[in-house]
Amino acid sequence: MCLFLFFFPVFICSFMVAAPIFGYLGDRFNRKIILSCGIFFWSFVTLLSSFITKDYYWLLVLSRCLVGIGESSYSSISPTIIGDLFTNNKRTMMLSVFYLAIPLGSGLGYILGSIAKDAGGHWYWALRVSPMLGLIAGTLILIVVPEPKRGIADHITGRIKTRTSWLCDMKALAKNRSYVFSSLASAAVSFATGAFGIWIPQYLVRAQVVQKTAVSCTYQPCSSKDSLIFGAITCVTGLLGVVIGAVTTRLCRQKTERADPLVCAVSMLGSAIFICLIFVVAKKSIVGAYICIFIGETLLFLNWAITADILMFVVIPTRRATAVAFQGFTSHLLGDAGSPYLIGLCCLLLACTAQY
């Protein structure tokens, strides 16, 4: 846990710094070349990190920083390419397929990483398998993926397609209320998921100790059963949430033009209710708590593809990469970059208050 809380901010901070740079580049230069270079860079750094010994621990920290730079390239640029290849309901579905890769990739990463570690006999073999997949993906992007003209799917022509300065882009985005509020909502979701992933497994372990169905762990290594169950639930709910969100939005658009924000609002409110219920139900039943986690996370993950789709609708094509990058920057800055520490600090303060 301590190592994760140390590595995580290093990755997030480098991601946040690099994202606006790639957003700027993505609005002005060939996107698939930038995308491929980012993936190749990520693969190269990950492969090199597998050869770092414990005597050079600081190099491992640096490698996590560089990985954040690589990841920020394709997270900022990929949605904009999809936005220029498809439109309307088809774009929603394609963005959903793209965002399905987040939980699916996380789950496969755990599985393939464990298999590689067991087969090779050491953890660093897990870091030698994933770069090979990255190299294949980067090569396929260069060969197969087209570089669409910005705005071609929306049939946008004329003055609106003219590139403007970065400062002009930022002023326009700051005045775009739909973009600003959807970015703040993304930050709220990121805040919840960041704290959720760190502290909920520990909370469930302590709940079982209170129920006397488990013994308190005072020496390492402790059982990772609850973390594994929570990880599996997160992967499944991520897949379900994205699919349900896309289908629900598509159906609701037949009734109202405000389908996207309404689905996001209802799902977030529903998620908040079930997340609060976790802390009530866990006192009596761990199974009941897992059911609440399943429903709460599914509702929480409904927003991923829909939020990206809202951005494509409200931001002109020549500013989309910058918009995606700064939405990611805001989500991490106000969200998961600090939420695990803030919740941990609140726990310590409450514990100190309870003692007195």
From TrEMBL:
This protein's UniProt keywords: Membrane, Transmembrane, Transmembrane helix, Transport
GO biological process: sphingosine-1-phosphate receptor signaling pathway
Topology of this chain in the membrane: Multi-pass membrane protein
SUPFAM superfamilies: MFS general substrate transporter
CDD domains: MFS_spinster_like
Pfam families recorded: MFS_1 (PF07690)
Record keyword Ribosomal protein present: no
Domain Major facilitator superfamily (MFS) profile: 1-356
Localization per Swiss-Prot or TrEMBL: Membrane
GO cellular component: membrane
Entry keyword annotation includes Repeat: no
Any one GO molecular function term: sphingolipid transporter activity
Positions of transmembrane segments: 6-26, 33-52, 97-116, 122-145, 179-200, 228-249, 261-282, 288-316
Family note: Belongs to the major facilitator superfamily. Spinster (TC 2.A.1.49) family.
PANTHER family named in the record: SPHINGOSINE-1-PHOSPHATE TRANSPORTER SPNS2, SPINSTER
Designated name of the protein: SPNS lysolipid transporter 2, sphingosine-1-phosphate
Organism, as annotated: Sinocyclocheilus grahami (Dianchi golden-line fish)
